[in-house]
Design goal:
globular; three-stranded antiparallel beta sheet; 11 strands; 0% helix; Jelly Rolls; mainly beta; 108 residues
Length: 108
């Protein structure tokens, strides 16, 4: 089931034993909201494009075939420099997300 977002779309692929895989399509110049997860661990793998993952005080540029691990309680957002496709692998699928003040709501 594809879920449309203001920044693009997400497509859940599979979930097994508490681990999920989904594909994110983020349009160039768009960004997910700044948020964190209390328990969820996420790994982002860039399939195509270039993104900047923003944290509270730093940022990390990722290009095709690069990845980053995001630990629980780490505020982050992902901004696409170019149209980008990211595989997101995580430890829970839904519910563990807290938006940081001033960013988009959950239906972003």
């Amino acid at each position: 089931m594809k879920v449309m977002k203001t920044w693009g779309k997400e497509q859940p692929i599979t979930e097994f034993n508490g681990i999920y895989l989904k594909e994110l399509h983020i349009a160039a110049g768009s960004s997910t909201s700044m948020h964190y997860h209390e328990e969820k661990v996420e790994l982002f793998y860039v399939v195509d494009g270039e993104v900047v993952v923003h944290f509270e005080t730093t940022q990390k540029l990722l290009s095709k075939r690069e990845w980053i691990l995001i630990e629980p309680n780490t505020e982050h957002s992902t901004e696409a420099v170019t149209d980008s496709i990211i595989l997101e692998i995580g430890t829970t699928m839904f519910g563990d997300v807290t938006r940081v003040n001033g960013t988009l709501p959950a239906h972003e």
